[in-house]
Amino acid sequence: MRGTAQVPASKSESNRALIIQALAGGGQLFNLSDANDTQLMQRLLQDPVAPVFDAEDAGTVMRFLSAYLAMTGRQAELTGTARMQERPIAVLVDALRELGARIEYAGQEGYPPLRLLGRTPQPATAEETEPIELTVRGDISSQYISALLMIAPTLPAGLRIWLTGKVGSRPYIRMTQALMQHFGAVCRDLGEVLEVRPQAYQPTDYTVEGDWSGASYWYAMVALAPEGSYLTLPTLRRYSWQGDQAIAGIMAQLGVHTEFLADETLRLTKNAPAARLTQDFTDCPDLAQTVAVVAAALGIPATFTGLESLRIKETDRIAALQTELAKFGGALTDAGEGRFAVSSESFQVTGQTVATYHDHRMAMAFAPLALLGEIRIEAPQVVRKSYPQFWQELEKVGFSIPAPAV
């Protein structure tokens, strides 16, 4: 397998940049993601009078818009798919209420849909110099924290967030802070305390980087490809804000070498893998499915930690992985105390059908197994959420994807 694969633009950067651009009142964004989540965010932000906003199955759209609409005083309902209505949001709603947002639950307490009823402003006074303080759990979703950070510069005295518990996906918080600072905000990261001073965002241009999460599937393909295989991936930065750049170090242990040919172009080549893998996914949970499939396919015993947030993603990703890996002779076993073991016995690809559970990452994590034999992917259109051109890019590097029988 040899060639060049185009990865999508980062939807994580894109959706943050769109919210900040709206708060800044201007600036041009280049190379925005064509993912459904980003297209959806653009459409909803451009509708100034909609009585109902449908975030569909997009976590960042639901969490970021909750904060944006609430703190800009909009009155509307914010809803989503049936699965979205099972994903908790009370941590964010409680914090927004402390900041003056008037929010009700339209259904089950603690879950979408939400009724946004405007905001009770907290006027600044001559004596008011200290930021409002919030205590927020960091062990559920970093998107809650990012949502609060992005609206913080608009508060009269700014915001100070005290984080409690184990903070997951911290690189996504750093990405949010970096983008905020690019648009003129003043942020301080003191570990368990995040502080944002009151400061109007400045209209600024920004070019979105390629998506390291999307690149992870190409790393998986090189890991499973024959000797002599290589791939070139453009638009990925050597010094990235994205936590999923960790895939380069993880896949080095699974036999993939990363070489930067230029600042935004890298080349992947196949090497010998390590004998086993131990990995903490606390800061990069979206990589877990991809790495689990590769480790099982290569027969490399692996121990994973930091998978807590996978239970509340598009599906219960731990349960989905356990079910689908078993079809091939692989296993993801709960070893207790937050540890999971990946193993395999006689791993074979012989035409199995992979269920995707309405989860784009299930489809793309299992697709590289086609290098070992024919497979079928159910509901392949789920990739539109983050990587609409995924199947076309596979065909460009030589995969055969016949049209499904009608």
Automatic annotation (TrEMBL):
Reactions this protein catalyses: 3-phosphoshikimate + phosphoenolpyruvate = 5-O-(1-carboxyvinyl)-3-phosphoshikimate + phosphate
Keyword Amino-acid biosynthesis found: yes
GO terms under biological process: amino acid biosynthetic process; aromatic amino acid family biosynthetic process; chorismate biosynthetic process
One Gene Ontology MF term: 3-phosphoshikimate 1-carboxyvinyltransferase activity
Taxonomic superkingdom: Bacteria
Pathway named in the protein's UniProt entry: Metabolic intermediate biosynthesis; chorismate biosynthesis; chorismate from D-erythrose 4-phosphate and phosphoenolpyruvate: step 6/7
PROSITE patterns in UniProt: EPSP_SYNTHASE_2 (PS00885)
Start and end residues of each Enolpyruvate transferase domain: 51-394
Keyword ATP-binding attributed: no
Gene3D superfamilies: Enolpyruvate transferase domain
InterPro entries with a match to the protein in the record: Enolpyruvate_Tfrase_dom (IPR001986), Enolpyruvate_Tfrase_sf (IPR036968), EPSP_synthase (IPR006264), EPSP_synthase_CS (IPR023193), RNA3'P_cycl/enolpyr_Trfase_a/b (IPR013792)
UniProt-listed Enzyme Commission number(s): 2.5.1.19
Enzyme class: transferase
Keywords: Amino-acid biosynthesis, Aromatic amino acid biosynthesis, Transferase
Family: Belongs to the EPSP synthase family.
Name used for this protein in its record: 3-phosphoshikimate 1-carboxyvinyltransferase
Protein source organism: Hymenobacter lapidiphilus
